[in-house]
Structures are given as C-alpha cells and as structure tokens.
Design a protein that fits this description.
Helices cover 42% and strands 17% of the residues. With 145 residues, it is α/β, with parallel strands linked by helices. The protein is globular and about 55 Å long. The protein has a single domain, classed as D-Maltodextrin-Binding Protein, domain 2, CATH 3.40.190. It contains 6 helices and 5 strands; from the N terminus they run ααβαβαβββαα. The longest helix has 15 residues. Helix 3 crosses helix 5. This is Enoyl-CoA hydratase. Keywords: Plasmid.
Length: 145
C-alpha cells in the first residue's frame, strides 16, 4: 500500500516539475545564453539595473541592452524579441495591460505619487516570471519594508 502511495506522490511531483510553463520557451532561450533587455531610461536607474543583473545571474545569462523607441521595444517584448523591459516602470502603468510584470522591486516617483516599480516581460511566460521573481527576492523584500 505504501509503495502505491509513494509512487503516486512521485508522479505528482514529477508532473509538477513541468509547471509553470513558458508557451514561447523564454526560460530555455535565456538560460545559459542572452537576456535581451529593453531600457526605457538612459541611464537605467540603479534599482532596475540591479534587478536585471539578479535575473541574468539566476539564469546564467549575459545581458544584451536595447535602447529604442518605447513603442518598438513594447512590440519587441510582445513578439519575443526582447525578454524584459526596465526603466522606472510604475505598477499601474498602462503598459502592464499588454504584458506580464514582476513583483515590485521598489518605488518610482511619478509627480506627487510613489507607485511600486516593476519590470515587464512577455505575457504568459509564467516559468520565466517565476524564475525572475525568485531572483528578485532580495529587492522585493526591501520594497515591502
């Protein structure tokens, strides 16, 4: 009886290893290769730079920076030609309607407001989002304090 229970538990654990998924394979594409990042500000704020560096280190990836028109970079993100967008992005930005976003990594000042700051990634790439958020834990803890 215990063998069947252990075998069933092992099957559940093995099946769970495949979740969450990246429909477009972002994690596999970036792992050990290149993390393509669109920088919306030049120079990139230290908080965003630190966040991108943490994600790249967690995925053993080199960072390839892109600085173009923000609309072009958003299109590139949605199409998979970029993996992240960084640069003082407020959590309540209209851009977040078209993308996925990381957990907050701090705050950004927008006029008199101080919304939480996030990085953007391709919508639906849930394993990449999970790996990114795991890498960002040191920043997200600070952001909650």
């Amino acid at each position: 009886m215990y063998r069947h229970l252990i075998a069933a538990a092992l099957l559940v654990v093995l099946a769970a290893c495949q979740l969450p998924k990246d429909p477009e394979n972002t994690t596999d594409t970036v792992q050990g290769a290149v993390l393509k990042v669109g920088a919306l500000q030049d120079p990139l704020p230290d908080q965003d730079l630190q966040a991108v560096t943490l994600i790249a280190a967690a995925l053993d990836a080199e960072i390839e920076w892109h600085r173009e028109n923000p609309h072009q970079m958003l299109d590139a993100l949605e199409g998979g030609d970029l993996h992240l967008l960084a640069g003082g992005i407020p959590k309540d930005s209209p851009l977040t309607e078209h993308t996925g976003m990381t957990n907050p990594i701090g705050y950004v000042t927008v006029g008199a407001d101080r919304p939480e700051r996030v990085l953007l990634l391709r919508r639906g790439e849930n394993r990449f989002l999970m790996r990114s958020n795991m890498a960002l834990r040191p920043l997200t803890r600070e952001a909650q304090e």
